[in-house]
Amino acid sequence: MRNIYLLLGSNLGDRHSYLREGALLIEREIGPIEKSSSIYQTASWGNTGLPEFLNQALQVSTSLSPRDLLFTVNAIEKSLGRERVQKWGSRTLDIDILLYENEIINEPDLVIPHPLMQERRFALAPLCEIAPDVVHPLIRKKIKELLSELSDDLYVQVESDNNNMPEDINKTTFDIDLSYLNDIADGNAEFIIDMIDIFMEQTPIYFDQLCKAIEEKDWKVTGDVAHKIKPTLAFMGVEAAKEQMAEIERKARNLDHTEEIEEQVSQLKISCESLYAGLQKIKDDLQGKG
């Protein structure tokens, strides 16, 4: 049996149903699903005017050859109503072959690894959840490294059943909730430490970019950077901070009370800096157990 990674995506009709039916057909026609990521809500890539997608990554064991795998994937897509009318268009179900073991294939109708996966947050985020240490056979970097270096800032966020807003989105101190990170790490302390390191390295850089844009009154860049910080805060479970950042993004994009943004960012920056000590303690505890 060979180890492969697939990415499912849907932005038409009952998207959850298409993902479920696709997974069932994959299990029946391709092989057993060993791991599945959370479902992610993602902005349309390549054609941003389309409806949002739901995406999910799967690790599958298969006896199919790469060529037979492609044939089977296309058949599953077609059986669920996929029509290839427009590049980067809407679809009932799309199945991308991201990785097939460590094989490298470059043929007119079959390219493995997927040639654009390293440029797409909607592919790397779910893949990193189930395979952070898998190495891209061409780029020779781990998936978690590719994700940490990614410049794509299109919206990608784990779907949540809890749509309630935090009780107080104006909190100036934040509790750290790493339950989501612990879930996807599945006991892998090294992965948690790596993610904490990335957060502590990247977040100050993002805030510097945000402060510079505000100083220059470049509200478009302000909104773009605030949008980019949101999933980073959510990943660490700092929901109240994420909601404050969403409010900053809204004001910047709508040019609504922009005079309030500088003070809000200043307070939020101080509050986020207070997280670093707590995260460092968690990291030290994990390293002490290693």
Automatic annotation (TrEMBL):
**The keyword Kinase appears for this protein:** yes
Q: GO biological process annotations for this chain's record?
A: folic acid biosynthetic process; phosphorelay signal transduction system; tetrahydrofolate biosynthetic process
Pfam families to which the protein is assigned, alphabetical: HPPK, Hpt
Q: Could you list this entry's UniProt keywords, alphabetically sorted.
A: ATP-binding, Folate biosynthesis, Kinase, Nucleotide-binding, Phosphoprotein, Transferase
Quote the InterPro entries the UniProt record gives: Hppk, Hppk_sf, HPT_dom_sf, Sig_transdc_His_kin_Hpt_dom
Where does the HPt domain lie? 188-289
Name the domain of life this protein comes from: Bacteria
Q: Name one GO molecular function term.
A: protein kinase activity
| EC identifiers of the protein | 2.7.6.3
Gene3D superfamilies per UniProt: 7,8-Dihydro-6-hydroxymethylpterin-pyrophosphokinase HPPK, HPT domain
What pathway annotation does it carry? Cofactor biosynthesis; tetrahydrofolate biosynthesis; 2-amino-4-hydroxy-6-hydroxymethyl-7,8-dihydropteridine diphosphate from 7,8-dihydroneopterin triphosphate: step 4/4
Residues where Phosphohistidine is found: H227
- Relate the protein's function as given in its record: Catalyzes the transfer of pyrophosphate from adenosine triphosphate (ATP) to 6-hydroxymethyl-7,8-dihydropterin, an enzymatic step in folate biosynthesis pathway.
Identify the NCBIfam families for this entry: folK (TIGR01498)
- Report the sequence similarity comment from the record: Belongs to the HPPK family.
Query: Per its record, how is this protein called by name?
Result: 2-amino-4-hydroxy-6-hydroxymethyldihydropteridine pyrophosphokinase
Origin species, per record, is: Arcticibacter tournemirensis
